[in-house]
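dude i think i finally got it to work??
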Amino acid sequence: MENLLRPLIVVGGAVAVTLVIGWITDRLLCKADERHHETPLWGLLRRGRIPYQLVLCAAMLRASYDETKLLERHSAAVGRTLTLVLIGATAWLVIRIAGAIVETTYTSYARAHRDPARLRRVRTQVSLIMRVVSAVVGVVAVAAMLLTFPAFRAAGASLLASAGILGIVAGVAAQSTLGNMFAGLQIAFGDMVRIGDTVVVDGEWGTVEEITLTFLTVRTWDERRITMPVSYFTSKPFENWSRGTPQMTGTVFWHVDHSAPLDAMREKLRDFLRECPAWDGRAYGLDVTDTTPNTMQVRALATAKDADDIWTVRVTIRERMISWLADEHPYALPRVNTAEASLPPNRTNGHPSSDGASPRRAYEPPRADR
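look at this
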């Protein structure tokens, strides 16, 4: 009976104490969160309650396992297993705590600053810092787990002796990976591109959705995802429409007939922009930029506060101007001329009039009474 009760008491007691301490800690965090609404730290710390309870339970079982007298032949293996669980749970808990602190810091910064560009920069840096912390904690945890095995401890001296050669070999083999990692850090702290920036890469327009130490994801306007190595953004040129101020100037081109009413088009452009909420009211304009034998090219300029709004402004004025011309001035739209050209007043069939009389008209449009 003693051999049965002892393991139940030790294991059951450890689990019970873990649950009680975990419940008390969770209640304290809830009360702290209710009292301090200005910071989300206490609420974020509650995300670590599972690794916290796992650390408590593994630590108590590791400390009291010898008292259970259970599986004495395999006590070393059980003890090492509990140690591995304790190390893994501790690393998990550290990552959760670090994540809560970093997220709280960013939230406080976002409340104090309203500049979208600065917030995107800090968000990018925070994300990459969190990934670096997670990677470092994970590597340390794995190293600590390996050191619990005697074979790895015995091989430590030889590994250290060959660390120089292994470092050179690993550096050559992982040159691309290391280059991407350093490029990721350069992007994070060099303010080259940030999460939420509007970029044009290889002719694709989209928004930066995710930045890691090795790759960057761009979400295009049609909801595709383009994943690229971060080293691309440190070695090749790309367009960043969110760099500096997000304000933009957009252009719209039309090909119209030479007789198009330009003054009326300028007035209608102003009316269309006033009715478009995406226009920021900074500037607009309409000019003839080129001509051909059959048409002339008209360019309209308009401004907006960001890339999304400038797209809305461009498609709106393009559509409404074409509709207005078709309804009110159909002659202004491009067309193919099939009639003979009218001659100048002082010419007849290409030659000056000899008697000084009024020249004949080379072409006279039909009248309705004929």
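Confidence is low (pLDDT under 50) at residues 349-370.
im so relieved honestly
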